[in-house]
Amino acid sequence: LDWVAAEEIANIELITEDGNGEKGDTGADPESPSAYADLTRDRGEQLIGGSIFLANLDLSHPLGYGYNRPVLPVFRNSTRFMARAENPYATPLHYTEEPLASGYVSDENLEKLADTAAIVVGGQGDGRVIAMTDNPNFRAFWYGTTRLFMNAVFFGHTIDDGAVN
Fold first, then answer.
1. How many CB atoms lie within 10 A of CB 50?
2. pLDDT tens for the chain, residues 1 to 165
3. Would you state the pLDDT for residue 38?
4. Which H or E run includes 23?
5. CA–CA separation, 93 vs 48, rounded Å?
6. CB contact at 8 A, 103 and 113
7. Bridge partner residues of 102 (DSSP)
8. What CA–CA distance (Å, rounded) separates 104 from 5?
9. CA distance 132 to 144
10. Strands 93-102 and 14-15: what pairing?
11. CA–CA separation, 85 vs 163, rounded Å?
């Protein structure tokens, strides 16, 4: 996503305030001194090492083909956050306002994640760029989102120009 945004391949906005998403981010208050001994613990608290979050899926969107329920559990193991698209039709999957279903996430990251995009559809020429914050095929053990990937591959070309950010 960093590369896609930097090269302007798709019109996506990554949420990076306060160093969010950066490897060294500890979530510590930069205005108050912290003990070096706490660095590893503070940095670890900000990681999302494998938690399950709830996201809203537009079942009428080509990426939602074959799904029957609008709330989709999503496995997440990164602190990369993406803003919802300006075009209301270009964010077919976004996290709920209270997304945590299972696992650990810091309060700061939970607040940043709420109501952000999990998928944004961009355009490049006549093609489509499907930007996903998470790996829907992660280690081939979370099967609930593999269909999103396959729908992007097989139905991405069917997404209307009016639904592109």
1. 15
2. 889 888 988 899 998 755 444 444 555 566 778 777 766 666 666 667 788 999 999 999 999 999 999 999 999 988 889 999 999 999 999 999 999 999 989 999 999 999 999 999 999 888 999 999 988 998 777 788 999 999 999 999 999 999 999
3. 63
4. none
5. 19
6. no
7. 52
8. 28
9. 15
10. unpaired
11. 10
Quote the CA–CA distance of 105 and 148 in Å, as a whole number.
24
Q: Which of 162, 143, 163 is closest to 66 using CA atoms?
A: 143
CA-based nearest residue to 61, from 19, 86, 91, 103 = 91
- Contact criterion met (CB below 8 Å) for 133 and 20: no
Q: What's the one-letter identity of residue 34?
A: S
CA 40/CA 90 separation, integer angstroms: 38
Q: If you count them, how many residues does the chain have?
A: 165
Rounded Cα distance, 3 and 101, in Å: 30
Burial 133-164 (b: 16+ CB within 10 A, else e): bbebebeeebeebebbeebbeebeeebeeebb
* pLDDT at residue number 42: 65
Residue 124 CB neighbour total at 10 angstroms: 13
